[in-house]
Structure formats: C-alpha cells, structure tokens
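I trust your eye. Have a critical look at both lines of this record:
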Amino acid sequence: MATSTRRGRGSHPDLYQEVTDRIVAMIEAGAAPWRKPWTMPRLPGVPALPVNAATGQPYHGINVLLLLPLSMLFGDPRWCSYRQAEARGWQVRQGERGTPICFYKLLEVGPEERDDLGALVGEGDEAVRTVPLLRRSTVFHASQIEGLPTLEEAYGAGESSPEAAWDAEVRLEALLARSGAAIEHRGARAYYQPGEDRIVLPPRGRFPSAAAYYGTAFHELGHWTGHERRLNRPFSFDRSAPDYAREELRAELASAFLNAELGCQHDLDEHAAYLAMYLELLRQDRKEIFRAAKDAQAIADLILDRHPRLRLEQGMAVPRTGSLEPDGLMPATADPPVPIRTFDDLLIAHQRLIGGALREVVRCGDDEGSLGRLVSHLAAALPISPTVTTALPQKTLIGKSRPNERAHGPVLGWG
C-alpha cells in the first residue's frame, strides 16, 4: 500500500510525497492514471490532454497525470480554479471537491529560513538564494462547473473523429518521417537499438490496426529520443537495473501523451511486470514521478515539434531558432530545415544559429553597441558558402557508443 504523506522539516507539507502516494495508490488499485482501455470519440479541435478552461493553456508534466483520469472519463479536458470560474460568471456546484495540482513558485531564502528549508538551501549556506518551491493549487473539472460553455460552443460543432486511426495515417506517417529516425520492418518484435540508433518494427500487416501500429511506433520513437544526440537519457539492458525501469516509465508516459493526442494505442505485453518496476521506483524516490512526467512531456513535445528549446533536424536535436505559434507549431514562414549531410553542412548550421541569435540582439536595439559590432565582424569572418563538397565520415556524426550499449543478449534492443 502507499505510504502515508510525510512532512519535511518544519511545518511545510511534503507535496512530492503526497503526489507520489496518490499515483502509487492508483497503480496499486489497477488504474494507472495514464492508461485507458477504451477509445472515446473526440470533436475536431478539442484538445486531447487537460487544458485550463479559462486561459486555454495546456497543463504539463505531473499535472497531466493528475488530471488525465477524470478528463478521459468524461471526454472533456477542461479544468479551472474556483476564482477563474467565478471571474467568468461560472459556478462550481456546491459540495464539489476539487483536484489538487502542483506548480513551482520561486522563493528567496535567507539564512534565517534555513531551519525550515535546510534541505533546499544546503548546510552552511549564508547567502540568499532563489529556489523553486513546490506549491499546491486546486482546480475543478468542467463536469463540476455550471455555466461553462459546452465543448461544441467552445470549440465549434462538428462530427466526432473516427475511432479508428486509419484516416489520420498521412499525418502520423509525416510525424515519423519528420523525426528522421531510422526504422526497419522485420521480425516479430518491436524494439529500439541504441547502439545502431535504429527502430525495428514488425511488418505493418502483423498489426491489427493502424492505431496499434502507430502506437507501437511512437512508443519506440519515445525510446529513440533518449539517444545522446537528442535528449540524452541513460539506457540499461539489465531489466533489474533502476535505469531500465526509469526509461520504460518515461516511454510509457510519453506514449500515453502521444496516444491521446494522435489517436493511437499501445498495450505493453508485460504491463503488470512494468507496473511492479514503477512502484518500486516511486516508493524509493518521492521525486521520481515528477522527473519522469517532465521527461515524458519533453519526449512528446520534441516528437510533436512543440519543444520550446529544441527541434528535430535529420534525426538530431538542434536548438530552436524561431518561436512557437500558439498551437505549438513553427510559423509557416519559417525557413525549411537544411539537410546536414557533410561537415560543411554542420558548420553552416552552427554559423546560422550564431548569426540568428546575434541578429536578434540587433533587432532589440543594440545595433550600435559592442554586440552589434560583433555581428558585423561575424558576418565578415563567417561567410556562408552555398556549395558543399567535403564528405563527413558517418562515425563522426554518430559518435562513440556508450559503455552500456555493449551486448547483453542476442538483441541490443529496447522494447
């Protein structure tokens, strides 16, 4: 059973432990908050994951896990606080209980607060520091609020999207292609090989539906993002190792986020065994579910091209040089990515990143200052040639294999 909520030093409640206890209790009850055994029709334009009804902003990370079960149960992703509802003339029904969520608030901590927040500040630290403090807020689901516009009123009327995902095949295939991942279709197993940086899937005909095929593909693509050229997460082929359980938890959470967004499905053959691994992780570290949810959000955002700092280009994660539009996609006017096939291509990409950042400094008004002069010097010193002739050996781009990529069995794969 889940352990009772602990309190940290002083009178501050341990919200990390409280949230972990809630997740553990749901898993122990056989209801992992990110899994749904059925599909529900969804109106076009309605977000798949929890959003704030007042602002339209999506929830992220751990809050997705806390709000997803009720969102899936009622087929409505909208939530808001009591004050937000009241400000818009909506009314939370009397007797309704809210759902706690978490957010971080920056707090300046001086030496006098060390007794209460010593774990955050550190022993012997006399300086004032700014630390992120986990705080609690309470939100209510749309089904608990009177006066809230219907989904049709909020997002427009339309027919529900089909339960099968075949009609979305073009979009899903485009997402896989845009990632730049190397995908092979052979055999009877689905796995990711970190050493070869390759995804292996059974032939499409072995899957019962498009939803099952793409759900499996995106699960393995989640593992693929962990390579050192992308999000750089540790891998292990030892199923008893904590790193193995951590990676599988992140991939499953990311799969849940992606499946809800894209209409896919992915069922782990060894789900019960994985749940046991997850429970062991969460019981040993009360902050693990927060890190896992954050990493899973980054996986989904990178695949969907919504990551705020990175984007995929030819299978590598590169810094994002433009800003995201409200829907999370790059502006249509953004320059298309240039393929990186040679060493000169790589140099050009770096030059453009540096030049773009410095031009932004000039645009903000420092064209006559020292940074503005630096832009001019760089423009003269780093001319971008339109022709490329030098070939780059493949091993230079791939990099060295990690020690844990050595063989631990017949297949160097991550399922």
Summary: The mean pLDDT is 76. The first strand starts at residue 51 and ends at 52. Residues 219 and 255 are 5 Å apart (CA to CA). The longest helix spans residues 343-366.
